[in-house]
Amino acid sequence: MKSRTVNTLSLISALLLACTVSLWVWSFWSNPGKNYLSLSNSFHIGSNHGRVDFFNEKSGPYHGSIISLCLTTKFGEDVFSERREFGDALGVYYRYFRWADSGAVLWTLSVSLAYPLVVLAVLPVIWCWLWWRARRLLPACQQVSGPRQDMAVAIRLYWWMGVLGTVYSVLVLIGVCLAAVARAEFPSVVDVAPMLTFLPLAGAFGASVYVSRRLTTRPEGMLPCARMVGIILATAMFPILTIPGIICVRRATRSFAPYCDSVRPDARNHVVCGPSPGEELL
Questions:
Q1: Could you tell me the residue ranges of all domains in the chain?
Q2: What's the chain's average pLDDT?
Q3: pLDDT digit string (tens) for 17-63?
Q4: Are 50 and 113 a contacting pair, CB within 8 Å?
Q5: Edge to edge, what strands does the sheet with 80-89 contain?
Q6: How many CA atoms lie within 13 A of 41 on its CB side?
Q7: Taking the alpha carbons of 113, 199, 229, 167 in that order, is the dihedral positive or negative?
Q8: Cα(37)–Cα(187) distance, rounded to whole angstroms?
Q9: Closest CA to 222 of 274, 277, 273
Q10: Taking a C-beta distance cutoff of 8 angstroms, is the pair 94, 108 a contact?
Q11: pLDDT(257) > 70
């Protein structure tokens, strides 16, 4: 039970890590004054230059202007009834202004995405280290070697790419719907069009899970499909899945024939006892 909980939490953390990396990459092309998510009329979330911004004005987050240079008094009267600020220090930037005459408020909190990246990477790194340590501690007679070891790595990568990609696709769909709900309108053509172009990629993620299961149980005839799925994911998800996709294609191509000859050759006659290939490899 404890192992299953750790695996589940590691999977969720790895998925959130992939989403955060995607947000970090996207933040260098986004305009927080136009591309943001509104949770209320005075609370908006955007991203810019490797940071996530929280702000109250629809014009965008405040990152310094003449406000910070003006005098605190004007004709003997205070311009601001309240003014707080912090940073930019350690990846955190905070500004809060309240005008004395109108009571209008302007605030912005900007936090570097390095913090969630480090936190979310902890569990996946620990899981990978525990898995690697457990493999090293296996007796030599229980270790899989040769083509079966190559295919075991490929099968795991196909499965993880498919599962993480499928969940990522679902989260993207939920995010589009939530953004539309925050704007109090139905998803527009601008929202739906990217999702329609994203459907073939979501299908490739599902095909990756299917390939992993077929390579485990009935690998005959699956090499062309496995190679095609690996190439599609390596190309479409550059650079996140490029290296795993190349590894899958290379190992499957090199070890497919000897793997088919070595894995339960007489399973069709149902005379082999012991665990199934899926239990041995996964």
A1: 2-114, 143-265+273-281
A2: 75
A3: 888 888 888 788 777 777 777 777 778 888 888 888 888 887 778 87
A4: yes
A5: 36-40, 43-48, 51-55, 105-112, 92-99, 80-89
A6: 1
A7: positive
A8: 14
A9: 277
A10: yes
A11: yes
Q: Kindly give the pairing relationship between strand 73-74 and strand 51-55.
A: unpaired
Instruction: Give 94-109 as a 3 state SS string.
Output: EEEEEECCCCCEEEEE
Q: What are phi and psi of 173, to 5 degrees?
A: -65, -45
**Which residues, in sequence order, are bridge partners of residue 97?**
83, 106
Locate 115 and state its tokens. Answer: 């913090």
Would you list the DSSP string of 234-282? HHHTTTTTHHHHHHHHHHHHHHHHHHHHHS-TTGGGT---S--HHHHH-
Give the residue from 267, 255, 203, 262 showing the smallest Cα distance to 229.
203
Place of tokens 């095609």: 228
> Pairing mode, if any, of strands 80-89 and 92-99?
antiparallel
Alpha carbon distance, N-terminus to C-terminus of the chain = 18
Q: What is the pLDDT of residue 230?
A: 92
Going by their DSSP bridges, the two strands 105-112 and 80-89 should be labelled as: unpaired
DSSP state of 67: G
What is the rounded distance in angstroms from the CA atom of residue 208 to the CA atom of residue 174? 22
Strand-pair partners of 36: 46
Average pLDDT over residues 211-219: 88
Q: In this structure, what are the phi and psi dihedrals at residue 31, rounded to the nearest 5 degrees?
A: -115, 105
| Total Cβ atoms within 10 A of residue 134 | 9
CA distances from 115 to 46, 60, 62 (A): 16, 22, 21
- With a CB cutoff of 8 Å and minimum separation 6, the contacts of 75 are none
DSSP assignment of 144-159: --THHHHHHHHHHHHH
